[in-house]
Design a protein that fits this description.
This protein is an alpha+beta fold. It contains seven helices and eight strands. The chain is globular and about 55 Å long. It starts with a helix and ends in a 12-residue tail after the last strand. The relative contact order is 0.13.
């Protein structure tokens, strides 16, 4: 039910923008008002608004509210989206396998990325996302437990980390680094790759208003992932 309401709210907003009901700069109803209108939780309404903000459709102004973005342009070649939604929108089957979900001490690279002390406790998950039962993405993710304290209690077979974090720590900022890599032995096994297969790796840090939320390493088989964007000026 939450997924259906989430999609319904997103489509309602997009339709209102497209038909001119909400022009550029128009202020949207509050999350509480949307939740009441669609008979859902505020978390569900927030997720819909957050994803449209991340996609550049909406923009937030602290203390003022959420508005239709004033410039119709994609601000980055990479847009952060929920991988399960992307796959389903292509009309394909999405599935996931959870490999690891645990707490561990932060190594220097992770501590620096999360802006915490080395050795501090972090939450760690490792998932494989499948499209049509074929591995599409190997996701390593480290979480700041002070910002998402219930991360380890989630069932990531029914909700993706992106979906959960969008609800509890809405994204305000992100940084990407894209690299071409050769898969190591573990990645070859998990992604079912042949020797010397090139992969595309995305290192992603995300922030909420409370600070750095997560540091993720996303590995894709090179022949199954493409970067692109469309800009309108």
């Amino acid at each position: 039910m939450a997924r259906a309401k989430f999609s319904e709210i997103k489509q309602h907003i997009l339709d209102a923008i497209e038909d001119g009901t909400w022009a550029r700069g128009s202020k949207l109803p509050s999350e509480n008002q949307l939740a009441e209108q669609f008979c859902c939780s505020r978390m569900t309404a927030r997720r819909a608004v957050t994803e449209l903000t991340e996609q550049g459709v909406l923009e937030r102004s602290q203390g003022l509210g959420t508005f239709v973005a004033g410039v119709n342009a994609q601000s980055s070649m990479l847009v952060i989206r929920n991988i399960a939604d992307e796959i389903r929108e292509r009309g394909h089957e999405y599935s996931v396998r959870q490999i690891v979900l645990r707490k561990e001490p932060a190594l220097p690279e992770v501590a620096a990325a999360l802006e915490i002390e080395t050795g501090s406790e972090v939450y760690y998950s490792m998932l494989i996302h499948f499209e049509q039962q074929k591995p599409l993405q190997l996701e390593y993710r480290y979480i700041n437990p002070k910002i998402a304290p219930n991360y380890l209690q989630q069932d990531f077979l029914t909700i993706t980390p992106h979906e959960y974090l969008s609800e509890v720590a809405p994204l305000t900022e992100a940084h990407h680094k894209v690299q071409a890599i050769i898969a190591n032995d573990v990645q070859k096994q998990q992604l079912k790759l042949e020797d010397n297969t090139a992969c595309l790796q995305i290192l992603r840090r995300t922030w909420s208003r409370k600070g750095v939320v997560s540091f993720a390493r996303l590995v894709h088989p090179g022949n199954q992932f493409h970067l692109g964007g469309h800009l309108t000026f």
